[in-house]
């Protein structure tokens, strides 16, 4: 389990159009939003990533980079980026599933073709949304067991405004006896 205010696992992956992504080398003033998505086969992911694409500039105005990550290969990742009309959102691909597990993501098995007629990979990770600080510690995290009911990016932008204005720390950091 990832713990707020503690270092996250590193994440180093190829991207479609932005060279190699390495979380340890990110330079945004306030950090990076990492949106792990299921893959091309998921119509809910396409809608979710469309919303993130619309908010990339909002995050950038607040000193935060964004990236979408999946275990899909380059071809399927390109198809997803094209499907949502991505212009600003970075897409990383080839997420190893053991790395997905390090991030606390759930892994699912294929059920064949989805409602949109695209074959699910044999194994893939379920969604997760994280904000990681520039020193690579966890600020915010949410993981899903299913594709439904995800955090809204507009709420995350609003929460970021509050956190910046009030120097609000990451919460959930206590690991002692209860």
Automatic annotation (TrEMBL):
PROSITE patterns in UniProt: THIOREDOXIN_2
The record's listing under InterPro entries reads: AhpC/TSA, Thioredoxin-like_sf, Thioredoxin_domain
By what name is this protein known?
Answer: AhpC/TSA family protein
Q: Where is the Thioredoxin domain?
A: 2-165
One family name in Pfam for this protein: AhpC-TSA
Q: Name one GO molecular function term.
A: oxidoreductase activity
Origin organism of this chain?
A: Shimia thalassica
